[in-house]
Design a protein that fits this description.
Blueprint (H helix, E strand, L loop, with lengths): L5 E4 L5 H12 L3 E6 L3 H13 L4 E5 L5 H14 L2 E6 L15 H26 L8 E6 L3 H4 L6 H21 L4 E8 L6 H4 L5 H5 L11 H12 L10 E4 L4
Parallel strand pairs: 1-2, 1-4, 2-3, 4-5, 5-6, 6-7
Length: about 250
């Protein structure tokens, strides 16, 4: 029997990442739940997956650090063969105009949201690509509808970083399409998760709901369903796609 393949979800301890990890486990995947600082949340999710009969591990690593990303993938190697990567780890910051942003804020924004995604994809491709003797796999990047909207007066830096993720998705998809790897992205809209609180706006999802054509914020589970479809064999002829899960916004 082939070894159970592993889905690695970065930033997987809460929100969209946790919902995706839970869904992958329900579909029979072993799951590696990466976290940067939220150890308790990641361990709780792993315990939940174990209780349901699945396999999971929690692995600490800051995706903005190249040595930590390398160590993360080495720990996943010991857990099982990598078959999927969900580049979900990301940060926002407090609402601010561009004319008030400093280099430290911008560096953090792009280091985590863009460079972290590149580093994790690099390691995943080296393991999954048929060019390196791998069995193929799937990568799903988490973008944002902010990339289309620009988020003026809120966080143009976050929107710009997520626009870079869109372009990265398209380029990488074409680069590895003949090597057994599909690369796609999901762009969530206003989703009711803890990320808003980390940006100093805990009620942002509720406050912006009237701007959404569907008149409500989305849920992490609704985004996870789209991520899972792209990871699964049901999307076997889909690569280089960017899917909006934004309630029509």
């Amino acid at each position: 029997m082939d070894a159970q393949r592993v889905a690695l979800v970065t930033g997987g301890g809460r929100g969209i990442g946790a919902a995706t990890a839970r869904l992958a486990a329900q579909h029979g995947w072993a799951v590696a739940v990466n976290y940067a600082t939220q150890a308790a949340a990641a361990e709780a999710l792993v315990a939940e997956i174990h209780a349901a009969g699945g396999r999971a591990i929690a692995v600490q690593a800051d995706v903005a650090s190249e040595p930590q990303v390398v160590r993360l993938f080495e720990q996943v190697d010991a857990f099982g063969p990598l078959g999927a990567l969900v580049n979900n780890a990301g940060v926002v910051d407090v609402a601010q105009r561009v004319d008030g942003m400093d280099a430290a804020r911008l560096t953090r924004m792009f280091q985590v949201n863009v460079i972290g995604a590149f580093l994790c994809a690099r390691e995943a491709v080296q393991r999954m690509s048929t060019r390196y003797g791998g069995a193929g796999g799937s990568i799903v990047n988490l973008g944002s509808a902010a990339a289309r909207i620009g988020s003026p007066g809120q966080y143009v830096d976050y929107a710009a970083a997520k626009a870079a993720v869109d372009t990265f998705t398209l380029g990488l998809a074409k680069e590895v399409a003949a090597e057994g790897i599909r690369v796609n992205a999901v762009r969530p809209g206003i989703i009711d998760t803890d990320i808003h609180a980390s940006g100093g706006q805990p009620h942002r999802a509720r406050d912006l709901a009237p701007q959404v054509p569907m008149q409500r914020a989305g849920t992490a589970d609704e985004v996870a369903q789209a991520v899972w479809w792209l990871l699964s064999d049901a999307a076997s002829y889909t690569t280089g796609s960017v899917i909006d899960v934004a309630g029509g916004r």
